[in-house]
Structures are given as structure tokens and as C-alpha cells.
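Checklist before submission:
- one chain only
- standard amino acids only
- sequence pasted in full

Submission:
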Amino acid sequence: MNLNQVTISSKDLEISVAFYKLLGLQLIVDALPRYARFTCPDGEATFSIHQKINMQSSDNTTVYFEDDNLKDLVFKLKQKGITFTSDIEDKSWLWTEAHLEDPDGNKIILFNAGKNRKNPPWRI
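Returned file contents:
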């Protein structure tokens, strides 16, 4: 089994599409104002957004995007005006992460985990 796609909700897809394009995702399906799908610069999975006008804060999601050059990515995104809720930190679970939110409050974690993503020392 392989993960194919993750879909999140948004009140305003035009704003969200612009945000995710700024992060570096490539738009491949444009069915605005109700749906959009992207590919990531690396890998085969896709990421999509569907419109949910009455979205509540409890509907928010956390999405992780991994990048081997996390420091460079965060620097470039800051240069583009992206605001982070936490800067790059080494976590106790052996990942390096930087946190931000999309325009709808969905939590985005940019990270680098290397071999620890699937094989941490405490793996069963």
C-alpha cells in the first residue's frame, strides 16, 4: 500500500492555491472555486484542497512536507513573506521541524528526518 493523496479543507481556494504555490507545489487540477490538486516537487503523492465554506477551527489538519534542504527552504519561504509560527528546531523524536499555518489555519510542518522518519532508534 502507498499513500496517494491527502485532501484538506479551505474556505477560499483562491487564497489557498496561491499559498501552496508559494510553498513550491505545482497545480495540476484547477476546478476553482471548489477543488484544486497539486504535485510536490519530489515524490509521487498528490495534495488537494476542497472548498468547505462553513469550516470550523476543529476541522483543521496538520500536514507534513519533508525537504532534505530544510534550512534553505525555510530561508527562501521567509524571503517570499511566509510567516512561521516556530522556527527550525531539533525535536526529541530526532526530526528537525519548522511550523507555519496556511490561510485557513491548517498546520503545516516542514521537516527533515532522514533515516529517523521510518527507522527511529525505538522502532518496533
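Reviewer check: The first helix runs from residue 13 to 23.
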